[in-house]
User: Fold this.
Amino acid sequence: MDMFVVRGGRPLRGRVTVSGAKNAALPIMAAALVANGTTVLRGIPDLVDVTTLSSVLRSLGMNVERKADGALVLTTSDDQRCLADYELVRRMRASVCVLGPLLGRRGRACVSLPGGCNIGHRPIDLHLKGLRALGAQITIDRGYVFARADRLVGADIYLGGSFGSTVTGTCNVLCAAIFAEGVTTISAAACEPEVVDLGRFLNAMGARIEGLGTPHLRIEGGHELNAVEHTIIPDRIEAATLMIAGAMAGGRLQVDGLDPSHLSAVIDALRTMGVGIEITGRTATVVAPERLRSLDITALPYPGIPTDVQAQFTALLSMAEGISVVTDKIFPDRFMHIPELMRMGANVRREGASSIIGGIGTLTGACVMASDLRASAALLLAALAADGESVIRRVYHLDRGYEQLEQKLNQVGADIVRVDDLPETMPVSLQLSDEELRPLAIDSSDSPPPPKFLKRPTKSAPVT
Ligand code: EPU
Assistant:
């Protein structure tokens, strides 16, 4: 298992380019199941989650190939396979995105029900409600969703739940509704740019979806769907993560290839905190201020602050002057990063769906553990800004959703080394010395023998 050794306190200067959006890529790849012929997708990031979904699609009889120019080419077959197995789905819950396309195209689907998740309770009741409204018969048996429909019929569907709408649920219902006889309307549809990207992809194939980007969608079903070429939108979460990195580490960072219209709430929050942000076309230039101001933020459905940057904002606000309150209205339990940030000196208290942060100016390096994708990003940003060295364990979470993040950051001045998670690779600076323990009257010989700390690998060590 890999971990990062990060030497903090180095300003970021230069240009980084944002990759294609993971959360647009996954439902669009799944939606390629509905097309006749060969779909060509550009801008699909090279991520573990993309590899996992490619395996799911292959297991459903689809040919998936990455070409030398980076394009992902997906060819449907007449295959009638419809099983998305537990072994694949358990690795990535977004595999559930094949449910709507399979039901629409093949008339049946058997998809493992996604299980627990580190960011909180994530049911799929709204997905199933929408599909049932279109006429699907759905049962849950031995951990699988069995869905069947000899014909789907257009319906009026309300897709809102206690926490707002559902992003992948809207994608699933859209992919089934384009096969339904007559007209379907969806109210409280998710408005996220990733859903709009999927809708545009389906419309280019021949579907008739109106209202994309609003909570009211109108779908005229039953049109022929022919495969197309499509370019995925830039990853707004990666863009926001990089902008926050610039604000935390200091320096002047240019983030290229983003769509600023997808980032209004993030840009506004950063500017309110005192971060200099200049937008020119598809580039944001981020200039870190001398002092960051505190701010209350709430993660909300689009166009609000995304829940996927809540952890990164918490890391940033822990360095601001004053008290900040961060609330997550989408995943009210998504706070696994807090105890780890506290190991780096952050002063944070959890209150229900909020965290109350007393800014401390500077974080200090420590050994921390990543619990999920965005928590890993928050810890990495904290480590970049911290005094001293940090170790971040379980960075496989990061590899699921950020394309070459450590290489991108190293190119602009960061010092991140990926190494095997072995005691021998721990930096000397994180070891407590006998001199430090003596004033506390702790005899280190009473404790179990510490791991053998050796010198940290140099930056030229091979990156695995
Ligand atoms: N919800 C229900 N019932 C449902 C579906 C969702 O109650 O049937 C609740 C969820 O528990 C949550 C809220 O509704 O409280 C929103 O969940 P949503 O369904 O929108 O989330 P998702 O589609 O499973 C996508 C992203 C997540 C992102 C959320 C929210 C993908 C592949 N995943 O998940 O991304 O956090 O939308 O914006 O698009 C990430 O990239 O790190 C990530 C977790």
Observations:
- The two ends are 11 Å apart (CA to CA).
- Residues 22-231 form a domain with the UDP-n-acetylglucosamine1-carboxyvinyl-transferase; Chain fold (CATH 3.65.10.10).
